[in-house]
Amino acid sequence: MPHRMFGLAFAALALLSVARSIMSDPRFTAAPAATQTTELAALTERLQAHVRKLAGEIGERNVFHPHALRAAADYLRAQWASQGYQVMSQSYEAYRVRSENLEVTLPGASRPEEIIVIGAHYDSVSGSPGANDNASGVAALLELSRTLARAQPTCTVRFVAFVNEESPFFARGEMGSTVYAKAARARGDNIRLMVSLEMLGYYSDAPHSQHYPPLLGFFYPDRANFIGFVSNFASRRPLREWVAAFRSHSDFPAESLATFEFVPGVAWSDHLSFWREGYPALMVTDTAFYRYAHYHSHRDTPEQLNYPAMARVVMGLQAALTTVASRPGRSQ
Questions:
Q1: What is the distance between the alpha carbons of residues 273 and 181, in angstroms, rounded to a whole number?
Q2: Of 211, 266, 206, 265, which is closest to residue 29 (Cα–Cα)?
Q3: Stretch 89-116: mean pLDDT, rounded?
Q4: Alpha-carbon torsion (57, 60, 66, 70), positive or negative
Q5: Which of the four pLDDT bands, split at 50, 70 and 90, describes residue 35?
Q6: Under a CB-based contact definition with an 8 Å cutoff, are residues 155 and 115 in contact?
Q7: Which residues pair with 190 in a beta bridge?
Q8: Which CATH topology does 8-325 take?
Q9: Buried (b) or exposed (e) across 305-318, using 16+ Cβ within 10 A?
Q10: How many CB atoms lie within 10 A of CB 192?
Q11: Cα(228)–Cα(241) distance, rounded to whole angstroms?
């Protein structure tokens, strides 16, 4: 997730949208049901293994470290192949380095023409091993595809690992999700929703561990113990559907906001590319630099993350995706 400056004016404008778009519920940290304990423990271990591989063993991965970028792509390819998927590559050149978006597809049983895209970027910013940003999102992506491989959704689900989300590519033509979304629009793909998994690994119950742009803190909790769902106004209907599906299957605290795209942080990931092509999209995030002190630094390492909490989030997302992808009709 790229970093940008922001001001009080933007926050004041954002405040105008909060009254209608906030959908919060009481925060609590109850333990998951006993029947989920074994599955949750296994998921926790797999998520940690993915993050350690990408951010620990491979480390900083971007066009300035092309060998590491290729190693990350190869790891994703191998993981998806082991899950039984055929991996497709969308290859292009950026800064004279071969870059790849990787995709696997689960065809819909009754409405294959309708598509849900679940995506996460696998590159990291210069100078950072990128454990939370965004090995955590990629780890979740791999575990979502693992679960859905055994499901039979009514619509088609695509899992996509995007390259080149970070600077100097963010919001530019060489950004991996921009390349992907433009190609999808040119083909006429009927993408009913794109979900961007962006930094899912850091949580804290400490008071005042969560921060916001000025004024927004009056409406949201001061503890960084929740997962956030964020969209623009055009995507507020699928946002509500996803939050409701998540909450119906998980007791992990969740907050949501549909607001202006220029509010700091709201558009700072791959979902922006889909908004620009007219597709509905939302971001799932731990709120990045609003709570995570190691954002875009060399300290963004695997040991900083809360894997048990992350596993609970991913388990909730697995159930929500299965539910939404199996419903009749469009979610727009």
A1: 6
A2: 206
A3: 97
A4: positive
A5: low
A6: yes
A7: 114
A8: Aminopeptidase (3.40.630)
A9: bbbebbbbbbbbbb
A10: 22
A11: 14
Least confidently predicted of 18-22, 105-109, 311-315? 18-22
pLDDT at 170: 94
Question: How far apart, in Å, do the first and last CA atoms of the chain sit?
Answer: 26
**Tokens 């300290």 sit at which residue?**
299
Backbone angles phi, psi at 282, to 5 degrees: -140, 165
Block residue for tokens 């889909």: 274
Q: How many H-runs (helices) and E-runs (strands) does the chain carry?
A: 8, 8
Rama region for 310: left / alpha / beta (φ>0; ψ in -120 to 50; rest): alpha
Question: φ, ψ for residue 150 (rounded to 5)?
Answer: -100, 0
pLDDT in tens, 215-238: 778 899 999 999 999 999 999 999
17: CB partners within 8 A, 6+ apart: 233, 257, 258, 259, 260
| Mean pLDDT of the 272-289 span | 98
Mind giving me the DSSP string for 202-267?
Answer: ----STT----STTGGGTS-SSS-SEEEEEEGGGHHHHHHHHHHHHHH--S-EEEEEE-TTSTTTT
User: Residue 230 has what pLDDT?
Assistant: 97
